Amino acid sequence: MKKLIPSALLLASLLTTSMQAAVSESEAARLGRDLTPLGAEKTGNADGTIPAWNGGITTPPAGYKIGDHHPDPFASDQPLYTITNQNFAQYEARLTPGQMALLKAYPDYKMLVYATHRSAANPQRIYDATRANATTAKIVNGGAGFADASVGPPFPIPQSGVEVIWNHLARYRGISAARSFGQAAPSRGGSYTMVEFEDTFLFNYSRPGLTPKELDNVLAYLKQSVVGPARLAGTILIVHETLDQVKEPRRAWVYNAGQRRVRRAPNVAYDNPGTAADGMRTSDQFDMFTGATDRYDWKLVGKREMIVPYNSYKLHSDQVKYKEILTPLHINQDLARYELHRVWVVEATLKSGTSHIYPRRTFYVDEDSWQILAVDQYDARGQMWRVSEAHCINYYDALTFWSTLEVHTDLLAGRYLAIGLDNEGKMYDFSLKFTPADYSPDALRREGVR
């Protein structure tokens, strides 16, 4: 990779994943000093195009009420410059190979680049837990899991690629949440059928005061219901996202409306097709990457300054209609916002003796939030196949930085999948309270027969 930040170059030669351990107390003491509480570099960059982190957005804009769509705190910003099919070569050092592939493939594709705002923020208890984790957390089972950490990201000063990915998997997204959203996979001509979902989450790992022992190997609980169109409605999926999925694979059950039965769903994992996604994403592409890490070797390439989707409040706005976003071949790039940020670059290559439709994947992970912002996915020939971007905002009612829209573009098919469309309906509700009992197979049976 080009132009690695010098402080990250040393990371490429560290010990293998199976030998990683917690950092020293002196290293951990950097958190909250020259590093942010989550481990990012607190200062800006040399030329001032990336500012210093000042705590992120911790107060909603004036007039915001819980339940509203989130007003854009940067609505007055104008693009600094636009990257197009004609000029992208001059920005190559700060673009992903996937972004350049999109610019080459679609002559009308563009990226509007705005001033950088480091808006990501978490509650203080997450920062406190992260500080405690720094000196205790360790990788186990060759990278398949981690131990001796809870509540906050386990590896704020990462020493390996798999530690960065575990920070993404264990990052703070509230405690309980519910959302209604749409998913669409437009044809090349732009026609689509909106698939409507209702999801609820319980992020077990982030529950206040939870100890590593009390986790019971469960990171999160998910219930996903398909509510439209009519031919798909009624299917309900429950997932217990286990921490070490080699020790204990992901637990999943599905209620089939036609059969009126609850069954185990072992195929909701790895490269099996995502729910109602028209074959446009794998199960482990949900939330950019989720699930077991054991099929890949994870190389920490280093840290780069890159142009990535960020503060995407326009794509979240209730003043925008779905048809304005879902244009042929790619989403409406006039509504997308890009900024220059530092990201961790992690290269995933398929282990010998395992299988996956993506033999190679490159992840670009936000230093301020541990959210994966972009992924390049390659086919068996080593060619760019699918390009994924997470268009994120600070949900300032919950102090979490998370995607409002995921877009997975298939360069070979000339199509894309958009997940998370919430402009015309409800959105995240972080005020609800769920318990593990709400995600049991018995609860699924009761839900299915209502």
Structural features, described:
Residues 5-19 have low confidence and may be disordered. The chain is built from 8 helices and 17 strands. It has a 13-stranded antiparallel β-sheet with strand order 10-9-8-7-6-5-17-16-15-14-13-12-11, sandwiched between helices. With 450 residues, the chain is an alpha+beta fold. The N and C termini lie far apart (54 Å). The protein has helices spanning 6-9, 25-28, 97-105, 124-134, 161-169, 313-316, 322-325, 441-448; strands spanning 81-84, 110-113, 138-140, 145-147, 176-184, 195-202, 218-228, 236-242, 251-256, 261-264, 296-309, 338-350, 360-366, 372-378, 384-395, 400-410, 415-421. It has a single domain, classed as Lipoprotein localisation LolA/LolB/LppX (outer membrane lipoprotein receptor (LolB), chain A). 12% of the residues lie in helices and 29% in strands.
Write the layout of secondary structure elements.
Elements: H1 6-9, H2 25-28, E1 81-84, H3 97-105, E2 110-113, H4 124-134, E3 138-140, E4 145-147, H5 161-169, E5 176-184, E6 195-202, E7 218-228, E8 236-242, E9 251-256, E10 261-264, E11 296-309, H6 313-316, H7 322-325, E12 338-350, E13 360-366, E14 372-378, E15 384-395, E16 400-410, E17 415-421, H8 441-448
